[in-house]
Amino acid sequence: MATMADVARSAGVSVATVSHVLNDTRPVLPRTRQAVLDAIEELGYTPNTLARSLVTSRTRSIGLAVSAISNPYFTEILQGVEAAALEHGYSLLIADPHDDPGHERKVVQLLHERRVDGMIVAPSADPRDLLAYIGRHRMPTVFLDRVVDAPEGEGAPRFDQVCAESAEPTTWLVNHLAGLGHRRIGLVAGRPGLSTTRERITGYRHGLAAAGLPYDERLVVHGDSEAGGGEHAAAALLSLAVPPTAMVTANNAMTIGALRALRGHGLSVPGDLALCCFDDFAWADLFSPRLTAVAQPSKELGSQAVRLLLERLAAPDRPARTVRLPCAFVHRTSCGCPEQSEQSSPSSPNGLRTPPQTPTKGPSRDRRRR
Fold this sequence. Notes:
This protein is an alpha/beta fold.
């Protein structure tokens, strides 16, 4: 097996120069760098990552704690994290916290014990133990998808955070349905305690207010961000004495659950009930009807989280910041609009994408069509 000394002899440089090329610890002339890289390729040299970590106190690894196995949305984010990490020479250690606060704390400790340089975490609805652990160990951490409010008395977040806009895109969906004439619009909301749940409920209420519609708490049911919960929540809405004529589902898993509930009640979309969903997923346009949705920039969220973490590692004392990325409205037919060529709507002045224009007034649809 080739050694670093073998590479140095082949390239005609010192072992220190080879080390600088491998670890990017000092500028090296381009022709010298290329000679070292050519020698590495010719000899099949593989750096000893463990030995290098002992010298640099860095493992060039990132811990990722997201529910990627149970949530397809996070699977796409994982792709963005992995691509960005590999681009910068980092490997990933992945753990699934299952959105459970106790398990979350355990997997984060496990990743820390593996000496990752930093972590990217999608926090649970109750991240108090998580915050205490990473704060106590001063672990460089980026919160992904869900933001965590700064503790009382502190003006800025203690950790870097990256997420998509949630409130305004939910308002788009409600406004679109209201513009089509719907007056009772239900919301299948996510797990209580998550920032995404709070923000999407806020967006829902803003959409109702903008359309001049009253807020009725009976039309908001939590589906706990899972397919089974979404099915139960949608069934509860459909069982109301005066059920909604339109529904917004707040993530892709709950959309699947809501569609099961509708089928169980013998109802069609959009003939009996119009449906819009948060999260556009790979097979959303394969349903009949095709699903009108808000698309989140999943891969970009993942790559942005890596960039924030690397910036934190390079400058540990810089102020923490929260980055929010815009979403897009994908107009299809489950909302009740006629089939048309699919396209995302144009950008608004603030950089976000807004839904297509729909009538500000339409026939009341308080009664379900049969």
